[in-house]
Structure formats: C-alpha cells, structure tokens
Amino acid sequence: MRGLPRAERHRPKTFRLRTLNVGTLIGISTEVTDLMKRRRIENLCLQETRWKEAKTKENGDRIKLFHNGEDTKRNGVGIAVAESLRIR
C-alpha cells in the first residue's frame, strides 16, 4: 500500500444494516425512505408492519420494500433494500 495514491488504495466497503419496529407501515413508507437516506442505511429490517399478504413495493427514491404478513394484520415483517445492493 505504500506509495500508492490515496485514490488507488483498497478501501473495504461498509455495509449498513439496521432494524426498526414501525408498529404500523400504513403511510410510513416515506418516513422509512427518509430515514434510510439520512442515516445512509442500505438494508433496513422492519418489524410489526401489519400489512396483509406478501408484497413488493418500489418507490421513486431507489428503495425497494419486500414485505410478508398474515391476513389478521399481525406480525408482519419487511426488508427495505437500497438500489446499491440489488442485483440487476
């Protein structure tokens, strides 16, 4: 590493993973997006979303939300993934 210009040195990538208990996800998806941008989170695991069934939602802010829940609107979980981590 000695003698290499700073721009050419190997830098390990940082992977930011967080969890969030949202209580309910109705109308909060924009808040999740803002939180991910502000804190530079690439992968956010969501708990207690209370959405029914399995869904996938992509918003205009380059974040894709995967979700799975029960018909009783209980115990839903989700994962919000930034575009930088998705396979093209």
UniProtKB/TrEMBL annotation:
GO terms for biological process: DNA repair. GO terms for molecular function: double-stranded DNA 3'-5' DNA exonuclease activity. This is Endonuclease-reverse transcriptase. It comes from the Eukaryota. InterPro entries: Endo/exonu/phosph_ase_sf (IPR036691), ExoIII-like (IPR037493).
